[in-house]
Specification:
Layout (H helix, E strand, L loop, with lengths): L7 E6 L2 E7 L5 E8 L2 E8 L3 H20 L28
Antiparallel strand pairs: 1-2, 2-3, 3-4
Length: 96
């Protein structure tokens, strides 16, 4: 990449703006995005920028799912189990 600027992609996924920049080595991409007041960054391995973008979108989905399971006080939300009612059985026919 001597004399070239690194490839860069950006986009919006589920209202989250993300940026991907080609890394120093071939097949490495650096990404960054923010959810709320938290910033996330890292690297992904991909030959193409579009594949790297897909992997970053998958990471965003994973983080959104994790954040949805934590309440505002930082505690893990527990989903309430709903009991299914037992099926109604028709009364026995007295003629049998």
């Amino acid at each position: 990449m001597v004399g070239q600027t690194p490839a860069q992609h950006s986009g919006i996924h589920r209202s989250i703006h993300y940026t991907i920049i080609e890394g120093e080595t071939a097949g490495t991409w650096r990404y960054s995005f923010s959810i709320g007041d938290r910033n996330y960054s890292g690297t992904v391995q991909a030959v193409l920028g579009l594949l790297a973008a897909r992997r970053v979108r998958m990471k965003i989905d994973r983080m959104l799912r994790q954040n949805a399971s934590i309440d505002h006080q930082g505690r893990q939300r527990v989903e309430k189990e709903v009991e299914t009612p037992t099926p109604l059985v028709p009364p026995a026919d007295p003629k049998d």
